Amino acid sequence: MSNTLQPLSDHWRNRYLFMRHGHSQANQQRVIVSSPGRGVENFGLSEHGEQQLAQLVADWQWPVPTRVVHSDFLRTTQTAAHVAARFELVPSVDTRLRERNFGELEGLGDELYPSVWALDAEDAEHQHHGVEALSRVASRMQSVIGDWEQQVSGEVILLVSHGDPLQILLTALAGKPLTSHREQTPLAPASITLYGHGV
């Protein structure tokens, strides 16, 4: 697969709110939690993350979502639940929105992220330490949008995912090399990026 992915379309049928989960227990403990075996049942939102979400939904400044779709990790599930409850929606799970799998680095300190990002900058296909390749992350994330673009139109779809997958997705959608995904400003916890039709 090439280092860049072709844009899905010049004409978007829907609008998308790309949301990183709120501040989590993994952020608080500064550990890498990227495997479903640990992240689905554990490491949900921190107390700070809960406060972030309460404030965000109280002061909502984005288009009102018509659908809420999220990774099945606990931190994204809890984030999605806050927004869905605010707008009386029933959230749905899509495992393609999961965290990037960091392989052998699972459970280790988050100070190891930059070493992976340095490798990313050299090769979008690398899988050092068993880390999921940029190209695979971009492909699965784009496929979520591709499916929604085929199924519905005129909707505002909130996709709740994780920092690395969302930055990789935004890089792909911009038509930039995937190896440059860390060149943009990192997405903060509970941040939202609007994309798509009419944006």
TrEMBL record:
GO MF, one example: hydrolase activity
InterPro entries noted in UniProt: His_Pase_superF_clade-1 (IPR013078), His_PPase_superfam (IPR029033)
Keywords noted in UniProt: Hydrolase
EC code(s) of this entry: 3.1.3.85
Protein name per the record: Glucosyl-3-phosphoglycerate phosphatase
Organism: Vreelandella titanicae
